Amino acid sequence: QVQLVESGGGLVQPGGSLRLSCAASGSILSILTMGWYRQAPGKQRELVAIITRGGSTNYADSVKGRFTISGDNAKNTVYLQMNSLKPLDTAVYYCRLTGLGGNYWGQGTQVTVSS
Q1: Distance between CA atoms of 46 and 30, rounded to whole angstroms?
Q2: Collapsing DSSP states into helix, strand and coil, what is residue 18?
Q3: Residues 26-52 pLDDT 10s
Q4: Is 102 left (phi over 0), alpha (psi -120 to 50) or beta?
Q5: What residues have CB less than 8 Å from 110, skipping those under 6 apart?
Q6: Beta strands 77-82 and 18-26: pairing type?
Q7: Mean pLDDT of the chain
Q8: 40: which strand partners?
Q9: 76-115: buried (b, 16+ CB within 10 Å) or exposed (e) per residue?
């Protein structure tokens, strides 16, 4: 079994920053990608950013230039640096790991952007 533990969410004012972390542990076979998704109330879960084991990244258009995804392969950890946060970024953020063993999700961490 694979466990994903997220941290770093919280309440921040518009224009502020947060850094999310997601650490994977357990019976991890080869990791292909790790990524962040988010789900706002009443909306579908959407991709925010994804990184391959080799370091290639992809971002949703809505976060390009504001969010940065990075990874530490030795620690099986992925980070999401979120800058210039907007109220529309408010959502539950989920970490996802895709590997040879399948897809795994974290429990989610709440990010609220409000004054």
Answers
A1: 24
A2: strand
A3: 887 788 999 999 999 999 999 999 999
A4: left
A5: 9, 10, 91, 92, 93
A6: antiparallel
A7: 95
A8: none
A9: bbbbbebeebeeebbbbbbbbbebeeeebebebbebebee
Residue 71 burial class via C-beta count within 10 angstroms: exposed 0-12, middle 13-18, buried 19 and up? buried
CA distance 66 to 85: 8
Residues 6+ apart with CB under 8 A from 64: none
Vertex 1: Cα angle to 103 and 24 (nearest 5): 70
Query: Helix or strand or coil: residue 76?
Result: coil
pLDDT value at 77 more than 90: yes
Binning pLDDT at 50, 70 and 90, where does residue 14 land? very high
